[in-house]
């Protein structure tokens, strides 16, 4: 979704540090391009902690195009 410089790992989950307007702009770009399906997982610290107890949930988060706070 975004450059690697705005992505960091937090307890094994790749999180994208982006502003809301940047995430929305990327979604609009995806819609205009009519390419493959994309996913964004908005989550807070609770979701990151839950991912520590549920490996399947962690895998889902890491499989999305972006995990955004």
Which features would summarize this protein structure in a list?
69 residues; alpha+beta; two-stranded antiparallel ribbon; 3 helices; 20% strand; globular
Describe what you observe in this structure.
With 69 residues, the protein is an alpha+beta fold. The chain contains three helices and four strands; from the N terminus they run ββαβααβ. The chain has helices at 20-33, 45-53, 55-63; strands at residues 7-10, 13-16, 40-42, 66-68. The strands form two sheets. Strands 1-2 form a two-stranded antiparallel sheet. The mean pLDDT is 90.
Concise synopsis of the structure shown:
This protein is α+β, with helices and mostly antiparallel strands and 69 residues long. The protein has 3 helices and 4 strands. The strands form 2 sheets. Strands 1-2 form a two-stranded antiparallel sheet.
């Amino acid at each position: 979704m975004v450059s690697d410089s705005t992505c960091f790992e937090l307890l094994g989950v790749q999180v994208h540090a982006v502003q809301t307007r940047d995430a929305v702009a990327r979604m609009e770009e995806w819609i205009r391009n009519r390419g493959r399906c994309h996913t964004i997982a908005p989550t807070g610290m609770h979701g990151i902690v839950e991912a520590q107890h549920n490996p399947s949930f962690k895998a889902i988060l890491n499989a999305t195009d972006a995990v955004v706070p």
